[in-house]
Description:
By secondary structure, the chain is an alpha/beta fold. The chain is built from 17 helices and 16 strands. The chain folds into 2 domains: about 1-85; about 105-385, Aldolase class I (TIM Barrel). An 8-stranded mixed beta sheet has the order 12-11-10-9-8-7-13-14, covered by helices on one side. A 3-stranded antiparallel beta sheet has the order 5-1-6. The chain has a 3-stranded antiparallel beta sheet with strand order 2-3-4, with helices on one face. The longest helix has 23 residues, at about 310-335. The model is unreliable at about 125-130 (pLDDT under 50).
Amino acid sequence: MTTMLSHSYRPGDYHSFEAAGEKFIYLVSAGAVFALDEVANRVLDMLATGPMGHADLIGALVGGGYAEADAEGLVRELRHAQLILSDHSVPAPVAPNPPKDFPLQALVLNITNQCNLSCTYCYEFGADKIATPAGKPKFMSLETAKASVDFLLAQSADRKAVHITFFGGETLMNFKLLQEVVLYAREQVAAQGRSITFSLTTNATLLSDPIITFLAENDIGVTVSIDGPAEMQDKRRVYKSGKGSYAVIEPKLRKLIATHKSRAITARVTLSEGVTDVIGIYRHLKDELGFHEVGFAPVTDSGEQSYSLSAEEMNSVVSQFHALADEWMDHALSGRPHGFSNVSETIGELMQGANKSHPCGAGLGLLGVSPSGDLSPCHRFTDADTHSLGTIADGIDREKQSDFLTRGHVGAKYECQSCWVRPLCAGGCHHEAFVRYGDTGHPNLHYCDWIRDWTDKCLQVYGAVSVGNPEFLERFTDRKALS
Ligand code: SF4
Ligand code: SF4
């Protein structure tokens, strides 16, 4: 008790924000949001001006009309929740390492590394180009694909449900294989009393009626890489001849969206120089073409390409993101889903109390498989020998996997230790870091300000909806995202 009285207190590691006229904090140690009542808020305000001794703090609360026993109880509660820290508080541990035998949950099968488009910013062709190593196949064989399914099922041990994403190159250039894999995988999981879901990413140029029917009948989630209306899409998403692809994909997309009703059809937009009309692109994809969800990401680059976003363009993107986030919030308050997935994904992570050791599942619950059967942390690293994590035939190279995960752990990223957004960001995409800094374990410092600003905005949306329509948030408790 005597020791307690000599304590002085300082604020914990949190980010405060306001929403719907109420005060909230995002508590970093817990990755959780709390609404602050008036008295808790008063304590934090007092400590914001400097540390306070125990007796002074209790005295100030009692002076403000609080009973002494209640004041003691409140301070104890705030200390236990780590909203306030004493001299003797042990620093909150960084997100713990996942167990060594963390079971696999998903594979991204790069069923071909060939593409019929030649998008000028594509990582297959851009600064971080990962060339197909000599002698390696351009299309995955059925044998490798079946072995990949067997590998996923063996490595996912006790999981009831697993997932396969088909990726390319242009995925549909190997559609025949995709069909065979779906049928084979369904047979195998059924025999084991388990379940499986599928998704694919495509540029939509090769969609046809039979393909659309197959995707719809097999509940295969579809993400379309598309940059917006013709003038945006045709700027960089072009054929090798330089001809734009919009006119080819537009009728196919209308057919896909009209036919495929069992899963959300998502558009994934890459923002690059001159392609920054976020709101216009959103309206076109959502309202005119009918996509259910639209997500945006700035182009991955080393910062110096002709297609890189300028600082002014990035500012414009941020303010348009804010406007769409406000729209998302208005929809949520009246119980209507909105398709801006950049908000939905962050809200999902907040609902799940994300406190990440790593930015994503790459190399952990998720692996990429190249056409030859080489394993990599995710689809963006496939065919890069420098990032190989083993092979389907020989299994996961545990030493390389451990090196990748150790370097990618948020605790290994110095700058992230004092950043309030680390439970959600954890340093950002490993691949982006590799392209920008040549090291998958480097924090993505070029977009910290942007990430913090954006997360703050999503917290405000979360807070407002948690006050005005909390039931709406429940639908995000099991939302998954794969970038
Ligand atoms: S990369 Fe930047 S924004 Fe992300 S956790 Fe680290 S310091 Fe924070
Ligand atoms: S966030 Fe980056 S490293 Fe992680 S899965 Fe996505 S592309 Fe791969």
